[in-house]
Design a protein that fits this description.
Number of helices: 11
Shape: globular
Strand content: 5-15%
Distance between the termini: 42 Å
């Protein structure tokens, strides 16, 4: 009987070291300033592309850097450890957009978009969520109407909370193309962000991920050519769900990074901070907080690695991705909160990192499927009974 091998390959270790070094040089020194300014430095995009981080798992023939999904998770973990706003750039442009084009696009779409997306020359955003439809993605109201068979589509509607929205060069847009109720009437389109009629409005004042470019998209009579349709007409919901299943893996990996950063900060501070004549690390209740963080980090990491392993072996991974996303996002909140407790009052000011970690972690339980939606997905998979 062969044992389970949890050792990373040389290539995977190299990917992790590359990401760790990049974060140490290009992200960590600036994360607090980006958070205060509500914008990361746009130059980070080209730097991510130059190292191949925007092309992981995408075939090299389309400009990608290849590699496996565990390497992809390791990179996302390190980026999340440094600044989740930077991790979000990769998770969305690569994880939700480029990978979806690679899976569903025709040859022309792949040749047009993938080399630019993987190099960092262009960014993508994922246009699914609407002001009135978050968890109920199948109820989206944005409409694409065809003038005549073989002619342009005309799109009207709006999207909300779109990561990379103000920076993106292409929108992977989901719109209703017929009157069939529910998910069967939805199609996917690749829409250049500079298309006339498409307006982008930045969303400011967020609790966390403040450095991330988040936008509302408004579409007024946006003309989209027939060649922009991604995949078959009416298959948009299936395309969106397949993208989100892998997206939940990358969110989970980013949450592991947040949790690891919380552990690093708590251990470091507890060893330096003295109370009653000795470091607070010597007190049992502080050790309890740190040990709880450590257990959450390791459990979240293994759940996430499990998803990557299933993807790379061509096995069904959707339920495992929901488990990992559910646990890792909730764990990241617990870890950051426990780290803040170790810091005491100093954790409540932004001179120290744990307050930002807590703010960034909180949204992870909301986007790409709330914790409640993940529980419904898992429950449905186990019982065979839909809650919808």
């Amino acid at each position: 009987m062969t044992g389970v091998n949890l050792e990373l390959s040389e290539e995977q270790q190299a990917a992790r070291r590359l990401a760790e070094d990049f974060v140490r040089r290009e992200v960590t020194p600036y994360a607090s300033d980006w958070d205060r300014a509500e914008s990361v430095d746009p130059a980070i995009v080209r730097k991510l592309g130059a190292l191949g981080f925007l092309g992981l798992t995408v075939p090299e023939q389309y400009g990608g850097s290849g590699g496996d999904h565990l390497s992809y998770c390791l990179v996302n973990e390190e980026l999340g450890r440094g600044d989740s706003s930077v991790r979000g750039i990769v998770s969305v442009s690569l994880g939700l957009v480029a990978k979806t084009i690679a899976a569903w696009g025709d040859e022309g779409q792949k040749r047009r978009w993938l080399p630019r997306l993987t190099s960092g020359e262009a960014l993508g955003c994922f246009g699914l969520t609407e002001p009135g439809t978050g968890s109920d993605a199948a109820g989206l109201a944005t409409r694409a109407v065809r003038e005549a068979p073989g002619r342009d589509w005309v799109v009207n509607g709006s999207k909300m909370f779109i990561t990379n929205g103000t920076w993106a060069d292409v929108v992977l847009l989901f719109a209703r193309t017929n009157d069939t109720p529910g998910h069967r009437g939805i199609s996917a389109f690749l829409v250049p962000a500079d298309t006339p009629g498409l307006t982008r409005r930045p969303v400011h004042g967020k609790l966390g991920l403040r450095g991330q470019a988040t936008a509302e998209l408004v579409l007024q009579d946006v003309r989209v050519p027939p060649g922009a349709l991604l995949g078959p007409e009416g298959k948009g919901f299936a395309i969106a769900m397949s993208a989100l299943a892998k997206g939940r893996m990358s969110v989970a990996a980013g949450c592991v990074g947040i949790a690891q950063a919380a552990l690093d900060a708590a251990v470091g501070y507890a060893g330096e901070r003295e109370q009653f004549g000795r470091p607070i690390a010597s007190y049992q209740l502080v050790q309890e907080l740190i040990s709880d963080i450590s257990v959450d980090v390791e459990a979240a990491r293994l759940l996430t690695w499990r998803v990557a392993d299933l993807v790379d072996r061509g096995r069904d991974f959707a339920t495992a991705a929901s488990r990992a996303k559910l646990f890792a996002s909730e764990a990241a909140v617990r870890c950051a909160n426990n780290a803040l407790q170790v810091f005491g009052g100093y954790g409540y000011i932004d001179e120290y990192p744990v307050g930002k970690l807590l703010r960034d972690a909180r949204v992870m339980t909301l986007y790409e499927g709330t914790s409640q939606i993940q529980k419904l997905v898992i429950g449905r998979a186990l019982t065979g009974v839909s809650a919808f």
